[in-house]
């Protein structure tokens, strides 16, 4: 599920009371899947900040109203979050921004939750396959060369064989003619820190995974380990991908040591002094 | 049919060859309904001019792609044309701009043509009724006070009785609790040249209807009269609404005289010297 990887969270924004119950259904179901979800009313919402801070926005309102809003904030394919629109009655889920950047998949998942129709309007033959963008999301990685991504997506849609060399990728989640056993394909997707000049190869750069752990004073190392392992499994990541663990609880260092991950101990004062616009956005501006 | 009143025309814009046959189906069916329709490929299109010059734009492409385009041109509710998006395969028709300004109705009509689903995402209870904007379109009139329109639309949706005093309106096309026999309602829609200060009354100002007639040299007055009467019937207008007839053919003056409409005779040179951006947009920029 693409939407389960939305670790920065999903914002469900409803415009008027008629949409509240649909918005609440989405919120509850996503929370039950452990997706961090916030429910907001349009009027009270600092949309500019949400735009920067969440992995997906779901507007519960009319498409034509949402489009006017989207136009105020959209900046570009690589930076905008996927945006879905659900009508008040929860009949349709329409990806209105970032179709190939997760919005199609997210729409299908939200539609399943609601028993609604996912209005997928990208070419039908595209939708049956995992795009390069989907693969990057699943790998928690960044696409270094967007131009090759367009070519490789074309190859995927045409059903051509594409060699994929991305360690740890959940292969069962991919749909397409992918070859995981070598690089003897015309088109390739591989991990690299730098883009090379092969125009038929998409280079993915793994993002750093730095985990901050909040815990009660009495929490044991076992519980911390269990929680972290559970979260990593949901994101499809192994411990080897974790580049840092941090906490105000010293007990977390035991887990870090066990898995060979650098640990940083913070004080409450240090945490409180952090000034970053995307820290858990409060529901009301 | 709202879309039949699109006398300035409908532009069908397809993005790639996969959408061409769907775009052509829409074009052919609209033309068969005598709606002036042009078919254009996205890449060749002067969208900025289309935006100003047509009564409806139908994009055949993905919603998320169309939204980026819409964002470049949208200016405001009162000035933007209704915009629909149809996916390449012609499965969905989504009103993405101007839902209440004709896009919902137009989407339903295009969906009927294609055997597609009209993805109406405004509140379901709104959609069953004719909005003030629909009524203004049917009357070929302009809404003078938008604020009252919001209130009266609310009353229509709630099923409250609304008094309508708009001569020549095709009553059978209206859905709602409308009273055509008087003005003893809390909410009213009426024709006026100026807005008064009643906040519960929508004032519609009739637009001037000026008809320019092109004809072959040998065309008779009877044929001109028949053609004009046919067009006026399609627009739901009586001869009394026509404020001017003009042509380079003197024979048209006979029809003007018969119906008591002022006539203007132009020369070919005068016509050719007209410089206005919206004169029949050529399909390629």
TrEMBL record, chains A, B:
Pfam families: CbiG-like_linker, CbiG_C, CbiG_N. Residues 131-206 form the CbiG-like linker domain. Residues 47-124 form the Cobalamin synthesis G N-terminal domain. Gene3D superfamilies: 3.40.1390.40, 3.40.50.11220, CobE/GbiG C-terminal domain. One of its GO terms (biological process) is cobalamin biosynthetic process. Residues 210-283 form the CobE/GbiG C-terminal domain. This is Cobalamin biosynthesis protein CbiG. It comes from Sulfodiicoccus acidiphilus.
């Amino acid at each position: 599920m693409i939407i389960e990887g939305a670790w920065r969270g999903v914002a469900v924004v409803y415009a008027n009371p008629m949409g509240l119950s649909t918005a609440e259904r989405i919120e509850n179901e996503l929370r039950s899947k452990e997706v961090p979800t916030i429910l907001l009313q349009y009027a009270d919402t600092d949309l500019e900040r949400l735009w920067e801070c969440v992995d997906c926005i779901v507007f519960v309102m009319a498409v034509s109203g949402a489009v006017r809003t989207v136009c105020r904030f959209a900046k570009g394919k690589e930076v905008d979050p996927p945006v879905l629109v659900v009508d008040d009655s929860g009949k349709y889920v329409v990806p209105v921004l970032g179709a190939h950047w997760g919005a199609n998949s997210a729409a299908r998942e939200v539609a399943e939750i609601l028993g609604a129709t996912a209005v997928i309007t990208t070419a039908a033959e595209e939708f049956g396959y995992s795009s390069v963008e989907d693969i990057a999301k699943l790998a928690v990685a960044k696409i270094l060369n967007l131009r090759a991504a367009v070519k490789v997506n074309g190859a995927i849609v045409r059903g051509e064989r594409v060699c994929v060399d991305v360690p740890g990728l959940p292969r069962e989640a991919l749909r397409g003619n992918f070859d995981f056993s070598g690089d003897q394909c015309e088109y390739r997707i591989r991990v690299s820190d730098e883009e090379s000049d092969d125009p038929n190869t998409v280079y993915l750069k793994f993002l750093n995974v730095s985990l901050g752990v909040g815990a009660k004073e009495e929490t044991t190392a076992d519980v911390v380990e269990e929680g972290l392992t559970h979260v990593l499994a949901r994101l499809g990541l192994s411990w080897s991908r974790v580049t840092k663990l941090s906490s105000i609880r010293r007990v977390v260092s035991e887990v870090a040591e066990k898995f060979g991950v650098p640990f940083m101990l913070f004080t409450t004062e240090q945490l409180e002094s952090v000034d970053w616009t995307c820290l858990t956005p409060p529901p009301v501006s």
